[in-house]
Amino acid sequence: MSQAAQISNQTRRWQEMDARHHMHPFSDQAALAKKGARVITHAEGIYLYDSNGHKILDGMSGLWCVQVGYGRQELADAGYKALKELPYYNTFFQTTNPYTAELGERLAKITPDGMDRFFFANSGSEANDSMVKIIRYFWSLQGKPEKKVFISRKQAYHGVTMTAASLSGISAMHPQAGLPLPNHVHIDHPDWYGYGGESDPEEFGVRIAQKLEEKILELGAENVAAFVAEPVQGAGGLIIPPKSYWPEINRICKKYDILLHADEVICGFGRTGNWFGSHTYGIQPDTMAMAKGMTSGYQPLSAVALGPRVGDALYNAGEEWSHGFTYSGHPVACAVALANLDVMEKENLVEKAGGEIGTYFQKKLQELADHPIIGQVRGVGLLGAMELVKDKKTRERFEGDTGTLCRDHCFNNDLVMRAIGNTMVLSPPLVITKDEIDTLFTQARLALDLTAKDLGAA
Ligand code: PXG
Predict the structure, then answer these.
(1) Whose CA is nearest to atom 7 of ligand 1?
(2) With left for phi above 0 and alpha for psi between -120 and 50, is residue 400 left, alpha or beta?
């Protein structure tokens, strides 16, 4: 048998096993089984390799998480060392370990002032679920147990567990499980391109922020626990808020004594050009969720960061806090997170995302604005989005699923770009170089040209 035939046989075998036994997240199982999943076998730098030998530029850092790129020896070594020294021990029974202790100290240095206590979990969903329990407990300790309603936003993505999915505002995430749970309500999000029409973006930002005030007044501030939001909405379409939005949200939360939870799962660890999106947008959160970039995705790890108000209340509660996961503060995951922070600091990745590399990425993104099917480009740091439209002036969309069409052209031409409805999204590894950014945008333009041709708009 030729080598090519062997490779394709092996790929088919994996695809068949996968189709029989593996339930894929957010997928039509039978349709995917029929098509066969692409088998990613290894990765290096900003490139993925599949079982058929394709080299694919990963414009999405996996799922918005591989900040330091793939194949980093430092992270592998740190994980290996911890696996040999202390592969597991819990943090329940009055014990800790060097990796978890050191990680807390490191995180306190890079998070906003006063965020000094961290509860560790394994995913963004668990971090957000834990936050809801923490905040309900906090209000109970304050003698205000009736403050139970969490206000979040349409198109928000906060995870998939029952509570995190209830916080999420992407409507497709609710009906299959009969969600949202009680005490979860959603308000409009600051999507100027989608809903702002001819209005001034800054005026629109304030108007949408004030939806929070309207909702608090409708529910009664005495019933509202917190406002929960991503600094920049990621999976819901990369919605970048007008500058006026967050200051108004800060003001409203303070005025009505509503806690503010920043979901930094995507925006954290340099993505927007600062350590956290809260730094970039001047957000003053009481609690934050983080995951993804914390280990660059090399290990599952997340955390809830507590500011002084919530942190001190739980610390001084004078009773046992009934919460925690088997793997909270897992030594191997924390060791890898520490090595990840070392690499990010040594290579100035946050400064680069907020400086030279981020600026270059944004410049190349702007150059796509004149493409015949692009109505708007927007971005911050190493995040970028493009709106696919039929008519640039009226923002009218093409019929059908244009995003998927474009995404398939990307995939067929060895680029991973994410389609969210009619929005194309990029979130490359923070280690990307200028030359690699050039390659990325050459590939992106090719996929857009092919999409335009299919739509008769070229
Ligand atoms: N918060 C935010 C802001 C997220 O983006 C989560 C919480 C949940 O994290 P876990 O680790 O439980 O998945 C996320 C996750 C997509 C996509 O298609 C985005 C996420 C996950 C899966 C797919 O853009 N974000």
Answers:
(1) 158
(2) left
Full pLDDT tens readout for the chain, 458 residues:
888 888 889 999 999 999 999 999 999 999 999 999 999 999 999 999 999 999 999 999 999 999 999 999 999 999 999 999 999 999 999 999 999 999 999 999 999 999 999 999 999 999 999 999 999 999 999 999 999 999 999 999 999 999 999 999 999 999 999 999 999 999 999 999 999 999 999 999 999 999 999 999 999 999 999 999 999 999 999 999 999 999 999 999 999 999 999 999 999 999 999 999 999 999 999 999 999 999 999 999 999 999 999 999 999 999 999 999 999 999 999 999 999 999 999 999 999 999 999 999 999 999 999 999 999 999 999 999 999 999 999 999 998 899 999 999 999 999 999 999 999 999 999 999 999 999 999 999 999 999 999 998 87
CATH class name, domain 74-346: alpha beta
370 vs 131: CA distance, rounded Å: 43
pTM: predicted TM-score of the whole model, two decimal places: 0.98
Complete DSSP assignment for 323-346: ---TTTT-HHHHHHHHHHHHHHHH
**38-68+350-454 and 74-346: same fold?**
no
- CA 235 to ligand 1: nearest atom: 24
Task: Give residue 194 CA to ligand 1 midpoint distance, Å.
Answer: 22
Query: Helix (H, G, I), strand (E, B), or coil: what is residue 37?
Result: coil
CATH, domain range 38-68+350-454: 3.90.1150.10
Atom of ligand 1 at shortest distance to CA of 159?
A: 8
- The H-assigned helical ranges of 220-276 are 245-256
Per-domain residue ranges for the chain?
38-68+350-454, 74-346
Q: Pocket residues for ligand 1 (CB within 6 Å)?
A: 63, 123-125, 128, 157-159, 230, 234-235, 263, 265-266, 291, 418
Nearest CA to ligand 1 atom 17: 235
Among 24, 27, 61, 63, the mutation site with the greatest number of ligand 1 atoms within 8 A of its Cβ is 63
